[in-house]
Amino acid sequence: MLFEDFASAQSTLLWSSFAIAFVLGLVVTKTNFCTMGAVSDVVNIGDTGRMRAWFFAIAVAMLGVVVLEATGTVSVDGSFPPYRGSNLVWAENLLGGILFGIGMTFASGCGNKTLIRIGGGNIKSIFVLWIIGVISYYMVNPFPGSDKTLMSVLFINGIQIRDLAVQLTGPQDLGSMIGGKEGAADMRTYIGVGLALLFIAYAVKSADFRKSFDNILAGFVVGGCILAAWYVSGTIGVSIDGETSNLRAVVEGWDFIMDEPEGRPAAAASWATQSFTFINPMGQSLGYGASSFDYSFLTFGIMSLFGVIAGAFVWSILTRSFRIEWFVDAKDFFMHVIGAVLMGFGGVLALGCTIGQGITGTSTLALGSFIALAGIIFGSALTMKIQYYKLVYEEEASFMKALVASLCDMKMLPNGLRKLEAV
Fold this sequence. Notes:
- The protein is mostly helical.
- The protein has one domain (2-417).
- The protein has helices at residues 6-31, 35-45, 49-70, 90-106, 111-119, 123-140, 150-156, 174-204, 207-211, 213-235, 247-252, 254-257, 279-290, 300-318, 330-350, 356-361, 367-393, 399-409; strands at residues 2-3, 87-88, 166-167, 237-240, 243-246.
- The strands form two sheets. Strands 1-4-5 form a three-stranded mixed sheet.
- Strand 4 (237-240) and strand 5 form a beta hairpin.
- Helix 3 (49-70) packs across helix 8, helix 5 (111-119) crosses helix 14 (300-318) and helix 6 packs across helix 13.
- The radius of gyration is 21 Å and the shape is globular.
């Protein structure tokens, strides 16, 4: 999609983000697609339906990216966030994923679910959104009057986790790591198609999944929305003096390309090729509000937040399921606050959430995305198991006893170490 001026291209991208996210919010609400719910179903009742829908969505997005790149339609190499960056921050991906998984369990849902719940009238999730926004904003932006961020204070100068990063000679996607510079493109196709087919096989192997219209619809539409966002953000360009430039290039070279300083977006990175992720945009929304809603701070990510909330709101109104929900008690409030804090830190460290890394990131075949996804699932599953042991055994189950029993259940410790019988 080629435009003669930046303003038209910018407006098209923003409203396209809103429209695709609106569909995402509508269908996710309708089908009860929930990544935390998927983990909960497996851990608590052995139901894999929603987990299979999640992996079906990954497969759809992954196959779509393979086609887009193989045909030269879109390249996700220079995406925002930089999923395929050559600096493999595996420890941040893993720790961030685990923290995010724990946090979303405490806060009753991931970033996407938080937006869905807001659209359905949940006031608790507005608090969660605000806390995540504050933390994610100051993880990457300096405190007022300072050059320090939460990231630099806690995770660079404090816990020096970035020292564990591995600097690769090329991109971190599986195709590049296995095929090298010359064979990366072909290897991405082979690996992408192979993994997608495996995920599809896992999904459709279950008769219950095949019989569930909602699970099939959710996986297809969620994956399709991720793909649609990749396509739109990767194909919109501006024609300047007969040359085609993408939006990020225009913003980065604004002083040399554009005649007037007016209309320049606040940051160039957020105009790169991208798809849906929700933690960083929550921080962007804080900056947008702090700027008195200056249009130059409006981004693809912020519009996607609005779109998901709007889609969820419309579905809840149509089905008369809109309900104002408040905290049950002080414990409920405290758990949501802790969960939001952990999701804020974890989502930025992991470079995304259950959607941002779990579907969007994995569709690029980035190794860090798979590490983050594993961390999210592990953190959430472990937390749920501990909570269940505490519920069943009450005072008899100390945190350590519940932790050990949970790790034994997950085959990560020998069974002889457990002090609590398996439940």
